[in-house]
Amino acid sequence: MKRAGYIPSDIYVNYSNNLNIFFFPWKEGFSLISSKMSETPSTSFSMIHPTSSEGQDSFPRHLRVTHPVVAKRISFYKSGDPQFSGVRVVVNPRSFKTFDALLDNLSRKVPLPFGVRNISTPRGRHSITRLEDLEDGESYLCSHTKKVQPVDLDKARRRPRPWLSSRALSIREPRAPAAAPGVPRVPRRLMVFRNGDPKVRRVVLLSRKVTQSFEAFLRHLTVVMQYPVAKLYATDGRKVPSLQAVILSSGAVVAAGREPFKPGNYDIQKYLLPARLPGISHRVHRRGNAKSESRKSGNWKVSIITSDLPNAGTSSQIYIIIYGQHRSSVPIYLYGTDGTRFQEGQEDIFTITVGDIGTPLKMRIGHTNSGLSPSWHCKEIQLQNVNSGKGFYIPVQRWLARDQEDGEICREFPLLNKGGPILPVTIYEVYVATGELWNAGTVANVYISICGEKGDTGSRLLFRSKSSCNFLRGQTDTFFLEAVHLGDLCKIVIGHDGLGPGNGWFLDDVVVKDLTTSNEYVFFCHRWLDQGQDDGKIVRELHARDNNIFSARQKLEFQRKKTWVAESWKFLKGNTLQFYSKLSRGFVRLHPDGTVDANGEKTDKYGLFDVIFSKGNICIFQSHELRHLCLALDNGSVTGMAGGRAPTELRVLHQPSRSVLLESALLPGHTVSFNRRGRTADESPAGYADLSGEFVVFVKGVFCNSAVVLLATSLCQALCLQPDGNCTGAGSQSERSYWKVHKISSGICMFESVKNVRMFLRIQDGRCDGAGTGDADCHFKIRKNLENASVSLESVKSPGLFVGLQPDGQAKPVIFTKDENVCFYPQVIKFGRENPMGMSATPNQGEKKIQESKDPKESPAEYEADNLICSAATQKIRNPQSSETLLSEDEWKVRVLTGDTGTQANVTLWVYGDKGVTGPVSLSKYSPEKLFLPRQEDEFQVEIRNIGEIYKIRIGHDGTSGQPEWSLQRVTMQHRKSKKILDFVANAGMSQIQADGDLVCELPVIKEGQPVFPVVRYHVDVYTGQLKQAETEAAVSLCLFGERGDSGLRLLHKSNMPVRFRRGQIDKFQVEAVSLGKLQKVLLRCEANDESQYWYCEKVVVREPSAASESIFTCERWIPFMSQGIIFSEIELYVQEMQINHQLKIQEEANDGDWKVTVATGDLENAGTTATVFLYVYGEVQYSGPIILGSGKHQLFSPNSADIFKINLKGIGEIYKIRIGHDNSGKDPKWYLEEVRLENMSTFELFCLTVDSWIAEDENDGDTWKEMPIVAANKAPLPVVVYEIHIHTGTKPGAETESNVFINLIGTRGDSGKRKLHQSKSNKTSFQRGQIDIFSIKAVSLGKLEKVLISHDGKGPGNGWFIENIVVKSEEEDSSQRVLFPCNRWLDEYQDDGKTERELLAESDSGAGAGAGSAIS
Fold first, then answer.
1. How far apart are CA 1375 and CA 360, in angstroms?
2. Kind and range of the H or E run holding 64
3. How far apart are CA 630 and CA 641, in angstroms?
4. Cα–Cα distance between 723 and 720 in angstroms, integer?
5. Contact between residue 1289 and residue 1361 where contact means Cβ atoms under 8 Å apart
6. I need a labelling partner for 895 at 20 to 30 A (CA). Which of 67, 196, 778, 1385 fits?
7. How many helices (H) and strands (E) does the chain have?
8. Strand, helix or coil for residue 170
9. Which residues pair with 19 in a beta bridge?
10. Which residues of the chain are modeled with pLDDT < 50?
11. 408, 391 Cβ separation under 8 angstroms
């Protein structure tokens, strides 16, 4: 017997065409019932009455029988969830042979976090553990623990409709396509509104963690919304009773407590628009509800007739907006009390209240596209003013539906007033250009609102384009918007909803064409709309350009500036360049006789030019071969000329195509040009016709060993290693995208991530990622592309496969084409060396971001070390089976005999001679799994150059194999030409689980049966400091340096203490190495991944057992540390008697101009800062510029501490003031500075400057900079002056700004520095239209003021700014001044000349209103 309305678990539901079809396979009969689905409670849904032999409405009576039941029909419910309506299961010996099989089956049907693990009786008193204990017709509870929460079975049996059921329906929905490898599935986003208060809203991700059950989801919403959530409603008031209903919702729900549903404007679309549209507030802006309107508010009667066409009714929410002469109404949602609104052939009448909008001009009607049947066909609308009786009739006869007509769900109609203008309905053609950056496209929903002098279009979804797929990278999509004519357009508001896996979007520009007037309006953007990029905004307000020509010119200029930023590194002083002519297809070369052509080959020695002078974009290019000649333009002729003369100064003009023009700085307009034959204009028969001055610039030494490079993929993106090991070309050009070059041989390199050491770029098994270990998969051939100065990376192991990029920027192996997806534009962060000596740059070397590539002949050999893996350049290794007819003096055959225990780890070799060192040499082949097997001898060939007489080797492995130990028996080296043999007997096991835990061993050369130098076991004591959080769990390594080389970088693994590097602890280690002689220094490295792992080392003490003395290396600082703005994870410590100032890493005599700076932070609570601190020092001759002292994020500027720095102030003259401050970055940037001391390290002259003040935006005057005069013995200090600044914002429309404004006062005694103006004395809100704001800043007396630099950062919705003038007042003891700086110009990237910074010159008061400051680029 079945009760009426009951739907069993095996129904089949088909959602196509919005129809429900239920099949009931019952023995008593068969029924097919169809009804139109709707989310409105009033829909004529037929209750399902199955055909049965009896007409009673009850459950089958439970009958107890004494004989066994063959098949038991049992209902199972979920513990504690009355919303779960249960599942019915037939239990018989064929369906379930064991009780565990039943549990597994129920786990797939009952949603529990850990599956069904317990079955109990309805009240939870007795657990069921056997199939025999289950009784036919009974109900049981399922839970995943033994604790059971009873449920009201009567309530649970009252099942909701199938599409609102929390149980998984038995329909077979088509599976979503599998995500691409490495791309996680993105959870759906849900907008949650607070009941009765739509302004309170949160976005929730429907992840597995929060959707284990409906109750768990409500608990999660309670935390998110910060009030108890007990019920959920759809935005139109229908209750959402289950988790399945949440998932099937339209994307928005209303969260309520125990109270009933409260109607409101729960519209997900309207929150894409700002609350107020700046610039047109005098005509159109949003209002509150009707109760807050003025006394002129009027009541309107609205009559809406829905057509009688099939399916003309809607389940969506209908709203209207009425635009008047003064302003518009708020979107008014037309709710019904009985839920029967807007059905086929029905007239719905409402009374609404609007404010004083003036004479009505147009009306917009639309819906939210919610519910199961949102499409709507409106027949007509009538509006009547209840007060005046004036009425309007609108014959609509249009679909408002995504799947009908033009797909629009809102329509606009003009309201015809007697004697008033008739506003036509027009079509706007909208062209949306997505940028060329990688991953610039989006799959999110994009909305636009077009604003003009007569209102706006409202927020419209852009979804029907002429393109098959919208908003792809580099694509321009065309859309059509219908609206009442807006007059002249002024701006647009465009944004997206952030939904979908690729929701970020780089918008280039938008062009709107008015088809009525044929006018075109250009809206320039060129920014990200992405929560993870730029400023994080996904909605932008764009203003119209004056004309297309200006816009195109501005766009071109913007592109040139970006190109200059990306390419300017090539023209730094010291670089060696080649210029490739696109027209002649040859390189520019300067001959000894002074003639110049563009026919050179890449290897032509006369085609190399050194940059010997660089200031801005003006350079002098000296011939690398002919040092007395420079490239010059003399009276329009390209020639060679002695350096230092004016014709040799050439201005570099970057083109958007990454090529350059070389223009004469003396005669602008004259450029270096050649014809197709590579001849200059005066040699060309055609004269200046058929000439080209575009050159592609190449820098020599980009891929030298140990260089750090950026592989740019666009002007602002680069190839970047992601945390999951994948690579993307859409990374930012930051340290995360730095790659260290390991040169294998000529033109073949490996690329190791600088941020994630030991992770190499590779192509393997059809994938391209950064999870390589330095094997053959990581070897790439560098192919240079002459046409654009890019390179392509071809796999050596898989020839023909290149590192390529997909449209979303993800890296993948591709076959070479001329497309840009295989082009990378290298930028050198740090130049490397042609002949590596061993280890990465020490801190002293690393302080230079870019350094020159030195000739190995000119630089002495240095002893250096590195990691055991291939983390520096791997030497060239040839296959021993290959035969060569000519044997080099540098070729050696190396044989390695493994003992009883083999390894598959990466094995590395270093060879030391009395003139240098070679290594690390990676001993690898194309089949690494066949190397270093037990009792096997492996043979390799290596090149060992210019190291003199060999005296030791070091060999080891990186421990990456599953086998932790490697038994090395012997290493034999044979010189291939002389047949000289060096035999190294090891008999050593290399494993971290052995006594010393070392993975390397050093072996000396044996002569006449004795080692040339003994093997010494050094005892190393490492002292961790007593400071708070001084301990670390990071890996710490050490390298010892002595008279005879180094020990190599050894991991300090085996300590005498159970836990290494605890606070105040002394850890004892042993390092075995061939005797280094007298120790000179040690290198410490701490590989900390985050700030919590930073380590404070007090000192290192090294003892040699045979010697009575010990070597002390004082550290007393945090590692990693910041110096000059660069973070270093390693530090060199010199032996104590050699050390002048260990805390500053000063090992040499003080140079001329060296000063010691001591910065004392106060002992107040929270006195320290997380910001980066800068120092400026001003002298009588010049000033130092910004000196980055370091960041509080790296354990500097802590409370009650003194930090010491060394700076060089050579040539600035007698110091008269300093300025110190910070960039306000980090979690807690405020800083209490106690004192600054400057000491001349040569003359010991000392200045003590007391501050004793907070430097913070929320303390004192809010300034983050302090200026102090120098108090010298022979002269009085300059006074500190308060400068009062009056800024007059103009009265033009849109003159106000919300951006951050900065000013720099410049006088006869220097400048005040760039100061932020953020606390106006005269107004609560600064820089409003027609307003005068007063600010004050303190600075050491600047003398007579001459000019100011005023600028803003372009942030905020209204970032343009029109300044009328600036007045600066100041008073000193003997004088006062009031200086006027006229401007009368825009600081707006979209207005005037596009500048956001201006230099304003001083003028007397009588000159007010005249002049305009000159612009700063």
1. 62
2. none
3. 5
4. 10
5. yes
6. 778
7. 6, 90
8. coil
9. 36
10. 1-69, 159-186, 272-296, 337, 547, 549-550, 687, 835-886, 1138-1149, 1405-1417
11. no
In degrees to the nearest 10, what's the CA dihedral of 1412, 1413, 1416, 1417? 0
> How far is Cα 230 from Cα 219, in angstroms, rounded to an integer?
9
CA 316 distance to own-chain centroid: 38
Enumerate residues 6+ apart whose C-beta is below 8 A from 518: none
Burial of 284 (0-12, 13-18, 19+ CB in 10 A): buried
Rg (CA), the chain: 39
**CB-CB neighbours of 531 under 10 Å:** 13
Q: Identify the H or E element spanning 132.
A: none
Dihedral, CA of residue 441, residue 447, residue 453 and residue 454, to nearest 10: 150
- Give the torsion sign (CA, 268, 269, 274, 275): negative
Amino acid at 100: D
Structure token digits, residue 1252: 């004793």
Give 210-237 as a DSSP string: T-SSHHHHHHHHHHHHTS---EEEETTS
Residue 617: half-sphere exposure toward Cβ, Cα within 13 Å: 17
Asked whether 1330 and 1323 are in contact (CB, 8 A), the reply is: no
Name every residue whose Cβ is closer than 8 Å to that of residue 574 and which is 6 or more positions away in sequence: 610, 611, 852
**Sequence-ordered strand ranges (E) for 1292-1331:** 1301-1307, 1310-1311, 1315-1317
Query: Residues 279, 285: contact at Cβ < 8 Å?
Result: no
Residue 564 has what DSSP assignment? H
CB 53 within 8 A of CB 28: yes
Predicted local confidence at residue 868, as pLDDT: 32
pLDDT tens figures, 106-142: 887 887 766 788 899 887 778 888 888 888 888 999 8
User: What is the C-alpha separation between 902 and 1162, in angstroms, rounded?
Assistant: 58
pLDDT attached to residue 723: 80
DSSP string over 812-858: EEEE--SSGGG-BEEEEEE--BSS--SSPPPHHHHT-SS-PPPPTTT
Length of the chain: 1417
What three-state secondary structure class fits 172? coil
Tell me: cis bond preceding 1199? Omega within 30 of 0 counts. Answer: no
pLDDT value for 734? 81
Q: Which runs of E-coded beta strand occur in 557-667?
A: 576-581, 586-590, 596-600, 609-615, 618-623, 630-634, 637-641, 650-654, 660-664
Burial of 606 (0-12, 13-18, 19+ CB in 10 A): buried
pLDDT digits (tens, 9 = 90+) for 872-881: 333 333 333 3
Which are the contacts of 548, defined by CB distance < 8 A and separation ≥ 6? Answer: 520, 522
Q: Please give the C-alpha separations between residue 914 and each of 605, 1004, 1079, 1193, in angstroms, as whole numbers.
A: 34, 13, 17, 43
The residue with tokens 């890996």 is 1035
Q: Give the integer Cα–Cα distance in Å for 919 and 909.
A: 6
Give every CB contact of residue 184 below 8 A, 6+ residues apart in sequence: none
243: DSSP letter: H
Task: Look at the block and give the residue holding tokens 């100011």.
Answer: 1348
Distance CA 669, CA 653 (A): 11
What is the DSSP annotation of 1092-1141?
GG-EEEEEEEEE-TT-S-EEEEEEEEEESEEETTEEESEEEEE-GGG-SB
Structure confidence at residue 1356 (pLDDT): 65
Asked if 1091 contacts 1119 with a C-beta cutoff of 8 angstroms, the reply is: no
pLDDT at residue 1007 in the model: 85
As a three-state string, the secondary structure of 846-870 is: HCCCCCCCCCCCCCCCCCCCCCCCC
Which contiguous run of DSSP H or E holds residue 349? strand 347-354
679: helix, strand or coil = coil
